[in-house]
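During the no-cost extension, the postdoctoral fellow (Dr. R.K.) reprocessed legacy sequence entries with the updated structure-token encoder. One reprocessed record is reproduced below for audit purposes.
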Amino acid sequence: MSRFNVSTNHPIIPNANEYMYERQYVSIHSEDRNVLRFPSSAEFEVELPQDYCNVQAVRLESWTFPANYNTFSLAQNNIAIVFEINNPYNPSDWMIDDPILAIIADALFAYKGQQFIAVIEEGFYNPFQMATELTNRMNNAVSVYISSYITETNPSLLTQFNLAGGYDQFVVAYNEVGQKLWFGNKSSDFFIANNSIIYLNSVLKDAICFRQQYPDFTNWGLPSYLGFTRCVATTTTASNGSYPRFFYGDVNPGDNGFWLLPDAKYLGNNAAIPVYYLQAPNKINLMGNAYFYLEIDGMNSIDELIPFAVNNFTISTNETSSVVKSAFAKIAVTTTPIAQWFDNNAGPSKVYNPPAERIRRLKLKLRYHDGILVEFGKFDFSIMLEFILFRPQQRRDYKMFVPESIGNN
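Re-encoded structure tokens follow.
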């Protein structure tokens, strides 16, 4: 029955409420995730190597990310520009008898009132690459339609149309001094439909991966990066003697700054054929997002506003839209593709009071301010987390007895 005796000469060691402050670092690489379960490195879970107990705080100590991101991508709905040829060139008005020019005119008049969509390649551009890409894509969008029209109406002219290079009247040029894009057409009037519904709802083929969470009043589509507002951009007409020109120098070698001139085959006997052009009202912006956010479930400590949108809430109240504890860290994008950037000391940290009893599993997410995931493709990244732990200590009292013989010496 002695086992029921609760009396003991060995009492439990009392809690001293004394702790040792300890730093523990954890290195996490994106390739550490289960790739089969989490194919995208922008959102995944990992199991930590041990239980981290009595966690007082967690901080992002350092990180390295690849700068191979796409400023322009289908996921961000910013690879399409919508335009319309509202006054096509008519060769009969200039007394020109050319079957190819005639059927091009017939096709464009048949399509009048409808809009073309030019889709650029996903990736990162410099201004000159963007100008060239837009020139070729806009012409190609028109050429594809005209080819289908010729196939249906007069197939015998299709080979000749293709050999002539298709439709080639659009020209996009970059003004290095003003840092603005200029759009022109050598023969037909046009406008850029920046108010198109495509910038609100992705209607592109295979756009199922479009997953923007918040409406964006600033970067709402490709035209916003090119310097346009949401207003329709209309052209100015220029004729012989007043063709648009960049006075600082050549756009193409030997053009003396005259970047838009009539096409010779469209002139006929009259050299006064007009050209049509417009200038983007704002400077081109190809840098993309300057920051992205790291979320870790249960550790988010940053409160975040959301992008402004015109809706019933914003026009009827002075309150702001925001998300409480939306992110763990805010990371600046300090370089452009192709590169690798490193940094440390992110600033914010998650503090637990009382300390978190145990942490073993993390769920991470990398996203931009508008909610779109950051896609690094097959490139890996790494972060280092600092765990601040409280290690409880036992009270140890020491009593020192000094022998009298030693004390008298």
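The chain has a mean pLDDT of 85. The chain has two domains: 11-70+289-393, 80-279. The remaining legacy entries will be reprocessed before the final report is submitted.
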